[in-house]
## 1
Amino acid sequence: MTWEQKRQESYNHLDKYKGEISEEEYERIENTIGSHAIEDMFLSEDEVYNLVRMEKGEISADELVAEYIHKLKAS
């Protein structure tokens, strides 16, 4: 898969949530995806979902880190 295809895949994940978040929130996540892509880091569906959750105020960054730690310990 090319760089552009990988980047577009991350944007496609975000498009699934377009109706759930404001235009401003969408643009912030879109910018995050673009910034990561510049560094050859492409966000997975789960990572985009977690950014959406944070934008919606459903979870804080600290809570998300705790979730990841819990998952790592469980595996």
## 2
Amino acid sequence: MDAAHGRIEFREIDEHGNALEHHLGAVEVPQRRAAVNPFIIGLWVLELALVIGIMVIINEAMARSPPLREIRCRSRSS
């Protein structure tokens, strides 16, 4: 079955049934600048805002809690 697939060829024909010749030379592909997807940019901005927000929340929680040494001293004194 593999031998049969090796012999299959495709030819393009015109409206009169004549085979069109294709030149398989090097095709020049114009280089495009990478397109920027605005949805992806929005996701990056949202991620950055979430990371900064979480850092602020953790910082505020750590600033308001007493140091661990004071917690240990209070528990021994009681």
